[in-house]
Amino acid sequence: MLIVSGSPIIGSFDFKARVDFVRVPGIIKLRNGDYVPLSAHGSIQETTSLRSSLITEAAVAFAPDVFIVDKEPLGLRGELEGTLEALKTRGTRLVLGVRDVLDEPQALAQEWARKRVVPALENLYDDIWIYGLKAIYDPLQGLGLSPSVAARTTFTGYLKRTRPAAMPAAGAEDVGERVLVTAGGGGDGELLIDWAIRAYEHDHRSLPPALVVPGPFMRAEARAAFEQRSAAVPSVQMLTFEPRMEHLLAGCLGVVSMGGYNTFCEILS
């Protein structure tokens, strides 16, 4: 298995044998919907072009039997269109995997119309995997897709997580007596972390101890401010990043979270 990712922390995870990764330049999405390069080098157009070239080269050289795309059917800013077409001619099975909640149907329809997504679903993809239950929510409802797309769509159920073999970092061993506060990736979790720390600043004696994990994508200045505030409260400990969150979630007293898809599945598991 070969994973292609723009995440700057992908190398922090432990992969099993026969699993490797290729890192491409990162792009992040702002609250207003715009995309910007993760680094300050180059424009978004240059970064997208470089990502597209690297992804196509890796995919063609690896010659996969199955190519699974995460969430964005044509990739960020259409970067995957050439890769999908090249692999389609080679007979690779093309799969789109999406979370069960993407957006309000009308908003998603407008976004996918702007990104020319529907033709890709109709003509390129062999399968669509929805990581959830149709009885709870169907993210493709109201989009006017053909019966052919519906026939190629599978609801997988929520993705169960297991604890990795390695234990979490030193300092988190006593998590069983703590409330775990996690903002997932942390890019949009500043308000949650602020609320949690503020509660302990107000009255930490009446609360169980807390372990705060703000996430690797939180703004550096915000994370530094939270670290300073946490250090001033005796019952609050803070870890910047922990790749083995499953151990912490399984052992803690309770969880305060954003409720995003990944944390949601980890809590259920």
Write the layout of secondary structure elements.
Layout: E1 2-5, E2 20-23, E3 27-29, E4 35-37, H1 44-62, E5 66-70, H2 81-90, E6 93-99, H3 105-114, H4 117-123, E7 127-131, H5 147-151, E8 153-155, E9 179-182, H6 190-203, E10 210-213, H7 220-231, E11 236-238, H8 245-251, E12 254-257, H9 261-268
Parallel strand pairs: 1-2, 5-6, 6-7, 7-8, 9-10, 9-12, 10-11
Antiparallel strand pairs: 3-4
Helix pairs in contact: 1-2, 6-7
Give a quick set of tags describing it.
about 270 residues, 4-stranded parallel sheet, about 35% helix, alpha/beta, 9 helices, about 20% strand, single chain
Order of helices and strands: EEEEHEHEHHEHEEHEHEHEH
> Low-confidence stretches at least 5 residues in length (pLDDT < 50)?
none
- Helices, by number, come to 9
Radius of gyration: 21 Å
Shape: globular
Number of strands: 12
Report how far the terminal alpha carbons are from each other: 24 Å
Largest sheet: 4 strands, parallel
What is the structural class? alpha/beta
In the sheet with the most strands, the strands line up as 5-6-7-8
- Mean pLDDT comes to 91
| Portion in helices | 25-40%
Report the sheet-strand fraction. Answer: 15-25%
Textual characterization of the structure:
There is one protein chain. The protein starts with a strand and ends with a helix. Helix content is 34%, strand content 18%. The model has no long low-confidence stretch (mean pLDDT 91). It is an alpha/beta fold and 269 residues long. It is globular and about 65 Å long. A hairpin with a 5-residue loop joins β3 (27-29) and β4 (35-37). The chain is built from 9 helices and 12 strands. The strands form 4 sheets. It has a 4-stranded parallel β-sheet with strand order 5-6-7-8. The chain has a 4-stranded parallel β-sheet with strand order 11-10-9-12.
